[in-house]
Automatic annotation (TrEMBL):
Domain VOC: 35-152
Domain of life: Bacteria
Protein name, as recorded: VOC family protein
One Pfam family cited in the UniProt record for this chain: Glyoxalase_6
Gene3D superfamilies membership: 2,3-Dihydroxybiphenyl 1,2-Dioxygenase, domain 1 (3.10.180.10)
InterPro entries: Glyas_Bleomycin-R_OHBP_Dase, Glyoxalase_6, VOC_core
């Protein structure tokens, strides 16, 4: 009887904890960063660097870089992607930043996030670009790093296969 009571208490505790975590997650629908969408960096020879990473680290690359597929924790049936892309060192894509790296952040609520940022005096460096696999915009952080914000459409991104978009 004690064993049954203990098991029942454990299951009840688990279910209550799970239920509360779902309520908290649903209630927190503020616009926010949800993860890293990509890491972009400059390279002298992007093709040679991709080949090196393939040969020595086993990263499967394509003409743009690599995509790492994962499943979203809140709903493990949903896919997510993080892209890894070396750009030619002469690229203008990172401007106005003079840095060698740019991080792409996955976000929820891009429009509201931008409205909040504009209210705080943070102005995007360009306008929102909408494509089938999501919406993109760029901002600068206080240290001059260009940041790409991406509100993904992972269903459409998954249809693209392993091809990167940049």
């Amino acid at each position: 009887m004690k064993r049954l009571l203990l098991v029942s208490a454990f299951i009840a505790t688990f279910l209550l904890g799970y239920g509360f975590s779902r309520l908290i997650h649903v209630a927190d629908n503020r616009p926010r960063v949800t993860g890293i969408g990509g890491i972009f960096f400059k390279a002298k020879d992007p093709a040679a660097l991709r080949a090196w990473y393939t040969k020595y680290l086993g990263i499967r690359t394509n003409a743009y870089g690599a995509n790492f597929e994962w499943h979203q924790g809140a709903d493990s049936t949903k896919k997510g992607f993080t892209t890894w892309t070396p750009f030619k060192e002469t690229t203008k894509y990172f401007q106005p930043s003079d840095k060698q790296f740019m991080i792409n952040y996955r976000v929820e609520g891009l429009d509201q996030l931008l409205a909040n940022m504009r209210a705080a005096g943070i102005v995007p460096t360009d306008s929102v670009q909408k494509v089938s696999y999501g919406s993109f915009v760029h901002i600068m952080d206080p240290e001059g790093n260009k940041i790409e914000l991406w509100e993904p459409n992972d269903v459409e991104y998954a249809k693209m296969g392993t091809a990167n978009t940049k």
